[in-house]
Amino acid sequence: MKDFLKYMFATVCGIVLLSTLSMFMFFFSLIGFAISGSESTKLSKHSVYRIRLEGVLQEQSDTDPMAEVFARASKREVPQQLGLDDLLRNIRLAKEDKHIDGIYLEGGSLSAGFASRDELRRALLDFKESGKFIVAYADNYTQGNYWLASVADKVCLNSHGTLSWAGLSANLTFYSRALQKLGVEMQVVKVGTFKSAVEPYILTKMSDANRLQMNVLLEDMWQVVTSQVSESRGLSVEELNRLADLNMSFQPEESLVACGLIDTLIYKQDVKQIMIGMTGSEDFKYVSHTEMLGLEDNIKSSKNKVAVIYAEGEITDNSGDGIVGTKMTKLIDKIAKNDDVKAVVLRVNSPGGSAYASEQIWHALSLLKEKKPLVVSMGDYAASGGYYISCVADSIFAEPTTLTGSIGIFGLIPSVAGLADKIGIDFDGVGTNRLSLTESNLIQKGMNPEERELMQGHVNRGYELFVSRCAAGRDMTTEQIKQIAEGRVWSGSRALQIGLVDAFGNLDDAVKAAADIAELEKYEVIDAEDAKNSFMETLMEIYGLDDSDQELVRGYKALKNMLDNNSLQARLPYGIEIK
């Protein structure tokens, strides 16, 4: 029995020791992978860049840094998310690389905003100027993906697939009757006739003002879509509208070819033969998006930097997945102090959010602007708080399909007094002063006239501040801003006409403008996040560490040195879903 226990104890100790050593070795390998990066891609002749139009298109790829490191260490495929920045880079490199004959757009369920699709579409048109081909295929085309695929030299559809072409629409869901049945009253304080984020909670249908602005928005965007498809497919805008009136989703597949929306009906397996004909080689090879990311980019380094700050998502105060005010202001301050950065581009893709955080970001940007040029590039949205943080710029670029403006503020506070009464809950309390219980009463009992007046005054002051920021930034009077404010959302094309933006253009156009203002002939474009975060800083953010964890920092730096020298990371009025 003693021998059994002795051997068992020794075995357990050995397993624990081996596991511990393996864990340390694996951790060191993770660090090594993170530091060493990935190998570059080598292309062969007759390569075709395959872009899978699926997933969610974001401003930047948002791969989890730890997941990426673990995947590389375990020799699994690195998880990728589709970033507009990566796609535009890869299309540019595909145009320049002599080994790439063309691009294959493989249809899927890509979710993307109108401005992002517009920017991607123009990059594909620029690619075609090289004389190289684009082929598109899908089992089924959504309307947005067809708009994108219409740039192709040959647009193919599955022999039994569908193509959505019925015009644009937007639907809202209203909850006021359900809330009324529950006994919950949504108390609204706002400034702006068109500030309609609150409507789903207090109405049963769209207000006249909201219906007006939505109709104008849809007409503006549909005009862009039809005019571009018209140019690519050789069909008149009138004919495209006639076809949309028929709702082509429900028409026979053959009619899609007959009317000119589609070139050919085939099965997916038949795409190979089309590629052989286009490349002139049976040995052509598809190059994936991930492989294209491994291509070396021959952009020369320069001591003069133009930093791009990405502001994507909802604006929050201290936490969240979008634009976190505290983190964004720190990044802006750091870039402002970086002497190598001569100009800054703020890329905004946000429906807004916290008015307080928007003001803090605006202030940080105004301080940065005192030191170096600041240009804004708008993506799909730059509305409400998204416009708040944009208006300070020297110049603003937008796409015709960008949603912007929405200069207004609102507050939405639920009162559960009716619900509490239904289920037998009572509230009571005491306070030292007359209005001490205001904040709890707003929810528990509902606003009285005095409390509503206090809340309205608070919102009014926020609106006046918002308007004053816009007026100063756009060199307009507050009255001029108020005439186009009232919470109204504008398309980029209308925004240019009324002075909310300066020009149409993409991120590259904004970068060139910033460099011109800074009088830079040679410069390097950098991501502001890259200028901020080392791998260790990203790890520390993930695990909630800070600079006080000196032992970990020193250990990492020592390990990195050894490896380096080893010779052997205010809100749009409503969620607009346009189909």
Would you give an account of this structure?
The chain contains 24 helices and 18 strands. Residues 20-38 and 546-569 have low confidence and may be disordered. Strands 8, 11, 12, 13, 14, 16, 17 and 18 form an 8-stranded mixed sheet that branches. A 6-stranded parallel sheet has the order 6-4-3-2-1-7, with helices on both faces. Among the domains are: 47-166 and 247-293, 2-enoyl-CoA Hydratase, Chain A, domain 1; 305-408 and 447-532, 2-enoyl-CoA Hydratase, Chain A, domain 1. The protein is α/β, with parallel strands linked by helices and 579 residues long. The longest helix is centred in the N-terminal third of the chain and has 35 residues, at 2-36. Helix 1 (2-36) crosses helix 2 (65-73), helix 4 (114-128) runs parallel beside helix 5 (143-149) and helix 18 (449-474) packs across helix 19 (478-484).
Strands, helices and their partners?
Blueprint: H1 2-36, E1 47-52, H2 65-73, H3 84-96, E2 100-106, H4 114-128, E3 133-141, H5 143-149, E4 154-163, H6 176-182, E5 185-191, H7 199-202, H8 208-233, H9 237-245, H10 253-258, E6 264-266, H11 271-279, E7 285-287, H12 289-293, E8 305-312, E9 315-316, E10 323-324, H13 325-337, E11 341-350, H14 355-369, E12 374-383, H15 385-388, E13 395-398, E14 403-405, E15 409-415, H16 417-423, H17 438-444, H18 449-474, H19 478-484, E16 489-491, H20 492-498, E17 503-504, H21 507-517, E18 524-527, H22 528-532, H23 535-542, H24 550-564
Helix pairs in contact: 1-2, 3-4, 4-5, 13-14, 18-19
